[in-house]
Amino acid sequence: MPNATSTRKLPSQIQISLREQQLTLLPQRAIWWEEKRFLLLADLHLGKAGHFRKNGSPIPAAVHWKDLVVLGTLIETYQPEKVVLLGDLFHSDLNNEWLDFAQWMQQYQPLPFVLIKGNHDVLPDAAYDLPQLEVIPEQWHIDPFLLSHKPIIEPKNQRGGWTFPSALTEITNFYNLAGHIHPGATVRLGLGQSQRMPSFFFGTTIGLLPAFGQFTGCVRMNASSRDQVYGVVSEQSIIRVR
């Protein structure tokens, strides 16, 4: 289980200790791994706007440029050794938005990007053949974490939200950090109102990152008393929810 070591008032970031590693949860929906100097994020879903336009929905490509501007700002701020993408970098078939991403990435040469492929990463192999991009098919075990797109055990949809099996409490040799689920948390605002927001979810052996892409949704997670949840209020604000 993670141990929250420090928080800041809004606007904020939150640092947790997980398996004796220092992880900073960023309100831009990414994680800074201090010891490795890795920037971790999941589920950009670049190209999703182009996919919708192809099917008749007038979604502007600018929605993805905003995501890349935010990612670029994080790169310039933290100067990572690697940017690690936990799957679903690109949403669907090859389109111009992939070419835009390839060109965008060049400005950060020689910074390496590592893509752990997700279920939406279905471009032809040749498309991924970029000098700065390393592609890992399924999982990357880098102590003490197993990095993957889908969690090693997927939650089930129960009681109006996603729930991990209650037996998933055993201590393992690694802690799984994953994306795919797009976790969300519901925060009560008073006067009978509530707001669902993207969240970081940390169980006993599996942690989920929120979707980095703005053109994505989030789903409710049913958290147990052992879990910790941090909600992303805005690009400047993150709070402990549970």
Question: How would you describe this structure to a colleague?
Answer:
14% of the residues lie in helices and 36% in strands. It is mainly β. 38% of the residues are buried. It has one domain (3-240): Purple Acid Phosphatase, chain A, domain 2, CATH 3.60.21. A hairpin with a 2-residue loop joins strand 18 and strand 19. It contains three helices and 19 strands. It has helices spanning 48-54, 62-78, 96-106; strands at 3-7, 14-18, 21-26, 30-33, 38-41, 82-85, 113-116, 133-136, 139-142, 145-148, 156-158, 161-163, 175-178, 183-190, 193-202, 206-208, 219-220, 228-234, 237-240.
Show the helix and strand layout:
Elements lengths: L2 E5 L6 E5 L2 E6 L3 E4 L4 E4 L6 H7 L7 H17 L3 E4 L10 H11 L6 E4 L16 E4 L2 E4 L2 E4 L7 E3 L2 E3 L11 E4 L4 E8 L2 E10 L3 E3 L10 E2 L7 E7 L2 E4 L2
Parallel strand pairs: 5-6, 6-7, 7-8, 10-13, 13-16, 14-17
Antiparallel strand pairs: 1-2, 2-3, 3-4, 4-5, 9-10, 11-12, 14-15, 15-16, 15-18, 18-19
Identify the CATH architecture: 4-Layer Sandwich
Structural class: mainly beta
Show unreliable segments.
5-11, 49-60
What is the mean pLDDT? 85
Domains, number: 1
Strand fraction: 35-45%
> How many extended strands?
19
DSSP summary: helix tally: 3
The CATH topology assignment is Purple Acid Phosphatase, chain A, domain 2
SSE arrangement, N to C = EEEEEHHEHEEEEEEEEEEEEE
Shape: globular
Instruction: Classify the oligomer.
Output: single chain
* Straight-line distance between termini: 13 Å
Alpha-carbon Rg, integer: 17 Å
- Classified by CATH, the class is Alpha Beta
Provide the helix percentage: 10-25%
